[in-house]
Design brief:
The complex is a heterodimer of chains A (506) and B (314). By secondary structure, chain A is of the alpha/beta class. Chain A has 17 helices and 24 strands. In chain A, the strands form six sheets. A six-stranded mixed β-sheet of chain A has the order 6-9-10-3-11-12, sandwiched between helices. In chain A, strands 18-21-22-15-23-24 form a six-stranded mixed β-sheet, with helices on both faces. A four-stranded antiparallel β-sheet of chain A has the order 2-1-4-5, with helices on one face. Chain B has 314 residues and is mainly alpha-helical. The longest helix of chain B is centred in the last third of the chain and has 27 residues. Chain B has a two-stranded antiparallel ribbon. The radius of gyration of chain B is 19 Å and the shape is globular. Helices cover 75% and strands 1% of the residues of chain B. The chains are: A alpha/beta (506), B mainly alpha (314). Chains A and B meet through α10, α11 and β20 of A and α8 and α9 of B.
């Protein structure tokens, strides 16, 4: 028998430029994880924000434990026991971890912050989410992305909550960190909290959710009990068509000269000894936990960060040293799709056209002047090749959904000639349909003889996409797997090698 | 494109309203003499504002332009006076002085990676000090040798005005049509993204700072010509006026957005405001007070308008 609804939303509607939510009703029950899925732009975040008091609906009403509930803001919702962890983390980098965890509710005595109580309460909250090892006096800015995400969860849980809303909580987490989060969700559920879990990742939903609600174009298209629908059905409900990501056919093992060979990359404690080869026509995965050196390896190869040691051979020629700047790497035929498209990838207020042509604008010029028609043609060709969905190419790229933004970041390089494409988390925060399209583009590039190196925190993504997987652990290569030997447990085990106290030698 | 035209229209309407208001409030404002005064005042400010527009679009700042103008003017005075150089040599020396100051600003802020606010604040003092040393703190009267530059010709335009307009036109062309201009906007929007796209932002930024210095040197020639003398105090406070004009023109202090033509309109608005208030008998303190209010109001209007446009819907 289902538990009574703790938080009910009835016939919510919200319209921005276009309708974001139309007549949406959902309910969260105590002791239940309710998953909310849908493509980017389906209205998931809008619904989550309304429930948490961050947005007011145009129509409809909400009930909390049977009483009318219309919070004026996040703080008010928090007082009533509804907490949210947002997809875009709102952390204040200059605060200490303890100050951030209890932000807005610092314990005080006579108007002065009670530092000891602050520290103790924060430590308790950190312990719960597995951040016990982090000094509460550290500045927030010194934390990595995954740690920040867990910090945001700790902050949401620092006060007693009846309902917790998690918007894409695992987007920045390693598998290991995600496990901690899942354990915490299970614990909260057992304590009787109602949890709304917004995610793209069907695997997580299958594992956690008691019920799943699918949103499409701002409407609820279905709500299913656990076990009532397969992942494939849910994907179909989300996109309105079949958009499964086909696994790659097995390829013969690479032979001959690699296009890029990396020897002994070293940088402080993050990169200890990274060596591997990358062949034309293959997609090589780079797996590993947060802090294993995935991003650092890519950035080092691209010349974005300096390294202390290491050598590369490019197209059979040994280079005297690694690239010292991205422009140098690009000139040698290497391209990078960055991990964080908003901070490092896109020029958000500028047009889709300007973003697509940035890396090859030089070729679209005559005597220093940009040829407008040539630029438009080039941008249009790239946008249609990638299937960027937009009203106009002159629209600011910041208005696009995550998946379309990511296509633009990738598209920037397709206009150029390159041999090696480095991709860091190419589908983070991207909906399933766009993810399948991006994977398809990467396969096409490999098929055309490019070498593609993909770093991802999702082993499933790498298994579906790659020909080989190199596993990093603690800054060195722990193991390499060929396509026919992809095994989730073996890969995870290799990724954990360093943490298990091993030597990390493959 | 339509958006750009709306911005021009807004500034044009503001300027027209200002002219009509002063015309109604005073007896003499709508006269040839008034416009001649304004026309003689603006060229130096326009030249400086062209350079500053690029610097601001890069999300940088150049506080040294007024002092660099003073130094370049002093160099011109010294070259034509005590050193007895020819006019072309004198002009070249003044421009070179401006260029060197700008290049130094650029080198320190780009290659040594110091904030441009600090670097140009330092240069503001350095150049002013150097101006006093070069001129021995004396105003040098140059007379007819340079006066012709600021005198109006048959068309009602002086060589100085023509140079300023040409610089503005060239600046706008570079900004909106060339690879260089596109890179400047891109760098001001997100420098890291530009670098990771394989474009080295440093030489571009360096050139922009150097150009700002060169334009301040050119402004010094124009300014010196108007007064027929080189004054080491010339241009003090000009940096703030020029930044105000650029900001009134809608260029963002956060970088990534701006227009040279609109900066030019901003310069004219400030000049009209100053002249009009003077004709109404407003004392200097009142003029400054009102000008300050107008600058803040312009930024507030700009802020609200851009929020309206830039909002992201989900």
């Amino acid at each position: 028998m289902p538990a009574p609804a703790l938080l009910q939303a009835e016939r919510l509607a919200k319209t921005y430029a276009t309708p974001a939510l139309v007549d949406v009703s959902v309910d969260l029950r105590a002791g239940e994880v309710h998953a909310l899925v849908g493509e980017n732009g389906a209205g998931k975040s809008t619904l989550a924000r309304i429930l948490a008091g961050l947005t007011t609906p145009d129509a409809g009403r909400m009930l909390l434990a049977g009483d009318p509930y219309a919070p004026s803001g996040k703080a008010e919702a928090g007082r009533q026991g509804v907490a949210i962890v947002l997809q875009e983390l709102n952390l204040v980098e200059s605060l200490t971890v303890a100050e951030q965890v209890l932000f807005g509710a610092w314990p005080s005595r006579l108007g002065f912050v009670d530092r000891r109580a602050l520290r103790e309460q924060a430590q308790a909250a950190l312990d719960r989410v597995g951040l016990a090892g982090i000094d509460p006096e550290r500045p927030v800015r010194s934390l990595g992305v995954g740690q920040r995400q867990m910090l945001a969860v700790a902050a949401a849980l620092a006060r007693p909550c009846r309902a917790l809303i998690l918007d894409e909580p695992t987007a920045a987490l390693s598998e290991h960190e995600a496990e901690r989060l899942f354990a915490e969700i299970e614990r909260l559920k057992a304590e009787g909290a109602a949890i709304l879990y917004v995610s793209h990742r069907l695997e997580e939903i299958r594992r956690l959710a008691d019920r799943v609600t699918v949103l499409r174009d701002g409407r609820v298209v279905a709500t299913r009990q656990r076990g009532e629908a397969t992942s494939a059905e849910i994907v179909q409900l989300m996109v309105g068509r079949d958009a499964g990501s086909q696994p790659r056919d097995a390829r013969p093992a690479p032979s001959g000269e690699p296009v890029l060979r990396v020897h002994g990359l070293r940088r402080g404690r993050v990169l200890r000894d990274v060596s591997f080869g990358l062949w034309r026509g293959e997609i090589l995965g780079l797996a590993g936990l947060m802090g294993s050196g995935r991003t650092e390896t890519l950035r080092a190869l691209f010349g974005a960060d300096r390294v202390e040691g290491g050598e590369i051979e490019l197209r059979g020629r040994r280079l005297p040293r690694l690239f010292r700047s991205p422009p140098q790497a690009v000139a040698h035929g290497i391209a990078l799709v960055t991990e964080n498209r908003k901070d490092e990838g896109l020029l958000l207020p500028l047009s889709i056209r300007a973003n697509l042509t940035l890396a090859r604008l030089k070729d679209l010029c005559r005597r220093g002047f940009v040829r407008p028609e040539a630029e438009r043609v080039a941008a249009r060709a790239l946008a249609s090749r990638l299937g960027v969905k937009c009203a106009s190419l002159e629209q600011p790229v910041g208005q696009l959904s995550g998946g379309n933004q990511q296509k633009v970041v990738l598209g920037r390089w397709l206009g150029r000639d390159f041999d090696v494409l480095l991709c860091d988390e190419p589908t983070r925060g991207v909906d399933v349909a766009a993810r399948a399209e991006i994977h398809e583009h990467l396969r096409e590039l490999a098929g055309a003889g490019k070498a593609v190196l993909v770093a991802s925190s999702e082993i499933e993504e790498l298994r579906a996409l790659c020909d080989r997987i190199v596993v990093l652990s603690g800054g060195s290569v722990a193991a390499t797997f060929a396509r026919d030997r992809f095994d989730r447990d073996a890969i995870l085990l290799a990724a954990l090698r360093h943490h298990a106290g091993g030597r990390g030698a493959a | 494109m339509s958006e750009a035209w709306r911005d021009y229209l807004g500034l044009g309407v503001a300027l027209g309203a200002l002219v009509l208001a002063f015309g109604a409030l005073t007896d003499h404002f709508l006269s040839r003499a008034t416009f001649a005064v304004i026309a003689s005042q603006v060229p130096a400010a326009i030249l400086v504002a062209v350079g500053l527009t690029f610097v601001l679009i890069l999300a940088g700042i150049d506080l040294s332009v007024g002092s660099v103008l003073g130094l370049a003017g002093a160099v011109l005075g010294a070259a034509l006076g005590p050193l007895g150089l020819s006019l072309p040599m004198g002009l070249a020396a003044a421009l070179l002085a401006g260029l060197l100051c700008g290049a130094m600003n650029g080198a320190l802020s780009v290659y040594v990676r110091l904030p441009s606010f600090i670097v140009t604040l330092g240069m503001m003092e350095i150049a002013r000090g150097a101006a006093y040393i070069v001129s021995r703190s004396q105003t040098a009267y140059l007379g007819a040798r340079v006066e012709w530059i600021a005198e109006t010709t048959a068309l009602g335009l002086s060589p100085a005005t023509l140079v300023a307009l040409a610089a503005a036109a060239l600046g706008q062309l570079v900004l909106s049509r060339t690879l260089f201009g596109r890179y400047v906007v891109a760098i001001g929007t997100n420098e890291e993204a530009v670098r990771l796209s394989g474009i080295d932002p440093r030489p571009i930024k360096w050139i922009v700072f150097a150009a700002s210095g060169l334009l301040a040197g050119l402004a010094a020639v124009v300014h010196t010509a108007r007064l027929a003398s080189a004054d080491p105090n010339a241009g003090s406070g000009l940096e703030l006026q020029a930044i105000a004009a650029v900001v009134i023109g809608g260029t963002s202090l956060m970088g990534g957005r701006g227009s040279v033509v609109r900066s030019l309109l901003g310069v004219v608005i400030i000049a009209v405001l100053g002249t009009g208030l003077a004709q109404m008998g407003a004392a200097e303190p009142v003029k400054r007070l009102i000008t300050g209010c107008v600058i803040v109001a312009a930024v507030v209007i700009d802020r609200y308008r851009n929020q309206g446009q830039g909002r992201e819907g989900q």
